[in-house]
């Protein structure tokens, strides 16, 4: 009974502390101010997550300059990689799914001295009402553990996951490909899957790295494969700073969507 009473007191204290956050303003070391206006119960957003938010952006005079709520179309982005202003990357990482918050973002965490688009003036402080709706699971590397690795004369390695009766990719035809690209340490540096936008390009004309021109030509529509591309068939000795290191072997999980 004593243990139960102590547990009950601890639980009550925890709940009270949690609830006391709502409605209070906090300021981070960077100068971002935020107020949690509604508390959710979902997962905490973290760097690298694809998050879906609703927002309304206002100037300090309370005039609205942008709103996903008014458009009826939530906004999604990858958190912590610079796809949005710094204040958003920092602020959304403070939220759990279901949280609503108001961010007051100083200009150095927003659009700075230049402003933006004739709408946001120089050195403008911005106010955003934000709701974290969802954290979407990103693409996962293909499971190739039971598949054979083949090597071409050029040094390209590839692993086919399946075979189809689809149209064969050929040079000078336009191919549509979904892909996710990884470094050897497993970190993903690019993904059409994450963007929801396959890549179209004419095959065999040097529009992509050599390993792609060669590797995609091995596939039929509907087939998936892993391409392991040595640096001389990728971005060479220099790489592609700051994303691709020098002499980097690249790993692409690809799916051929269409050939025209």
Describe the structure in your own words.
This protein has two domains: 24-136, Chitinase A, domain 3, CATH 3.10.50; 150-259, Chitinase A, domain 3. Mean pLDDT is 91; it is low at 1-19. The chain has helices at residues 2-19, 68-71, 86-92, 192-195, 210-216, and strands at residues 25-27, 33-38, 50-59, 64-67, 75-78, 100-105, 126-136, 150-151, 157-160, 174-182, 188-191, 199-202, 224-229, 250-259. The protein is built from five helices and 14 strands. It is an alpha+beta fold and 260 residues long. GO terms for molecular function: peptidyl-prolyl cis-trans isomerase activity.
Per-chain topology:
Elements: H1 2-19, E1 25-27, E2 33-38, E3 50-59, E4 64-67, H2 68-71, E5 75-78, H3 86-92, E6 100-105, E7 126-136, E8 150-151, E9 157-160, E10 174-182, E11 188-191, H4 192-195, E12 199-202, H5 210-216, E13 224-229, E14 250-259
Antiparallel strand pairs: 1-2, 2-6, 3-4, 3-5, 3-7, 6-7, 8-9, 9-13, 10-11, 10-12, 10-14, 13-14
Pfam family, one: FKBP_C
Family: Belongs to the FKBP-type PPIase family.
GO molecular function: peptidyl-prolyl cis-trans isomerase activity
Features:
260 residues, alpha+beta, Chitinase A, domain 3, 7-stranded antiparallel sheet, elongated, Peptidyl-prolyl cis-trans isomerase
Round the Cα radius of gyration to an integer and report it: 24 Å
Question: Which series of helices and strands comes N to C?
Answer: HEEEEHEHEEEEEEHEHEE
* First-residue to last-residue Cα separation: 74 Å
- Give the percentage of residues in beta strands: 25-35%
Number of strands: 14
Average residue pLDDT: 91
* Low-confidence runs of at least 5 consecutive residues: 1-19
Number of helices: 5
Oligomer: single chain
| Secondary structure: helix percent | 10-25%
CATH topology of the largest domain: Chitinase A, domain 3
Largest sheet features: 7 strands, antiparallel
Count up the domains. Answer: 2
Basic shape: elongated
User: Structural class, judged by helices and strands?
Assistant: alpha+beta
CATH class of the largest domain: Alpha Beta
């Amino acid at each position: 009974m004593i243990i139960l009473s102590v547990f009950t007191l601890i639980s009550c204290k925890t709940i009270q502390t949690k609830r006391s956050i709502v409605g209070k303003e906090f300021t981070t070391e960077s100068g971002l101010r935020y107020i949690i206006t509604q508390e959710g119960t979902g997962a905490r957003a973290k760097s690298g997550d694809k998050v879906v938010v609703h927002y309304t952006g206002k100037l300090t005079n309370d005039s609205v300059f942008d709103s996903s709520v008014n458009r009826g179309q939530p906004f999604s982005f990858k958190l912590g990689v610079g796809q949005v202003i710094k204040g958003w990357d920092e602020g959304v990482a403070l939220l759990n799914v279901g949280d609503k918050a108001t961010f007051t973002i100083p200009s150095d965490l927003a659009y700075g001295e230049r402003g933006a688009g004739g709408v946001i003036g120089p050195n403008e402080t911005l106010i955003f009402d934000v709701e974290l709706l969802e954290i979407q699971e990103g693409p996962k590397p293909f499971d190739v553990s039971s598949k054979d690795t083949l090597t071409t004369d050029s040094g390209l390695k590839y692993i086919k996951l399946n075979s189809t009766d689809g149209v064969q990719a050929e040079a000078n035809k336009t191919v549509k490909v979904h892909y996710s690209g990884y470094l050897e340490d497993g970190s993903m540096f690019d993904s059409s899957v994450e963007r929801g936008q396959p890549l179209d390009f004419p095959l065999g004309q040097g529009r992509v790295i050599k390993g792609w021109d060669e590797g995609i030509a091995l596939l039929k529509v509907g087939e998936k494969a892993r391409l392991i591309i040595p640096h001389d068939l990728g971005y060479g000795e220099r790489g592609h700073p700051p994303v691709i290191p020098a002499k980097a072997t690249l790993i692409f999980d690809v799916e051929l969507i269409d050939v025209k």
